[in-house]
# Entry
Amino acid sequence: MKPAAFDYHAPRTVEEAVALLATHGEEARILAGGQSLVPTMAFRMARPGVLVDINRIPDLAFLRAEDGILRIGALTRHAAFEKPVAPGPVGALLARVARHIAHAPIRQRGTFCGSLAHADPASEWCATTLALSGTLMVAGPDGQRAVAAEDWFQGVFTTAIAPGEMLAEVRLPLLGPDWRCGFAEFARRAGDFALAMAVVALRLDAGRVAEARIALGGIGGRPELAPDAAAALIGQLPRDAAQSSAERAAAGCDPQDDIHAPADYRRDLVRVMVRRAIEDAIAA
Amino acid sequence: MSRHVVTFTVNGVAQRVEVEARSTLADTLRESCGLTGTHLGCEHGVCGACTVLVNDIPTRACLMFAVQADGAAIRTVEGLAAPDGTLNALQQAFQDHHGLQCGFCTPGFLMLSTWLLERDEVLSEATLREALASNICRCTGYQGIVEAVRSAARKAGRWAE
# Structure
């Protein structure tokens, strides 16, 4: 239960951090909040030879709303979202989601961007970023590039990040007042990893759904969109269409059996979580 | 396998230690600083026994490397009682309400609760129970812990009736 030996670097700029990644290649890992990486190192499931600690890079410590975009720097902790960070449906959604992430001390240290970089299938922020069509800003030797959330998640703990790159920022659109956002998850105990979760974003026009996005998490190797379930809402009153949308989400997902739950149980949970997330959006 | 000289304060006392990069803050407090009040249970961030305050933030000391704490102000369970051993109000509440059995988890619960009582928010039954769920008591003596912190919060004027 002690991590294997490694070399430690604490750069002061993103450029220095990227240069360290270039120098050390696959041996190097970024250390931000450490709430997922350090346990895997304690178990020696991860044995990085070099840790690049980004906690002393002041340029990554930001969280601000700018031109309708919420810009989340790599050092923004989960706890920063416990109270709405911006007026409107997205700030309120993030506050409701944040309460479900692990426990209070973990939320004080773990970071939003770290969750996206780690890409745990049961990460609340991953499903949320997918539902909101977020953009991930990746820093590398040639500067920054943008990756759409839909292209980010490639499998269990696997993302579109390339060797030598680091996630510097996530951008979320601050949806307008005609949007409603909702969240629901099921975990056996408070703070546990969810067995299933759903995040929905609905744009309403005269009470009917004009646009809809639904993301599911915790059920497979990566968070995924449920386009059929979202399509079932279009043109409908969300309350009336919630159940049929939920049925489509359950029919369209492909949960896996594991030691925590059989696939059929997870499919049932998806049905209930999608319905509850839509109800949460309406109530919000 | 880098080694680092790290300076920080623990309970107001300056410390200068030389550590391997992989030394956790918890191991460093225990082995380099001789402060064995911070206990290690699971060593992977689940049980909360090693909770200390780093710059007033509750932190799993098993999930932070000591080298990361360079320049920080750390508080541990050793800093709670008065120098003559008189328990502080929270510790006294734990004793009065049977908030400990074997005592192994107690330092973590005390530091977590210290933070809860210092925050700018009043506690309610729901928020208290949710926050205390952060840590594990393997004796399952949770009820006494809840009662102890509730009592301390009431006395400190931080309880929402």
Remarks:
- The mean pLDDT of chain A is 97.
- The radius of gyration of chain A is 19 Å.
- The first strand of chain A starts at residue 7 and ends at 9.
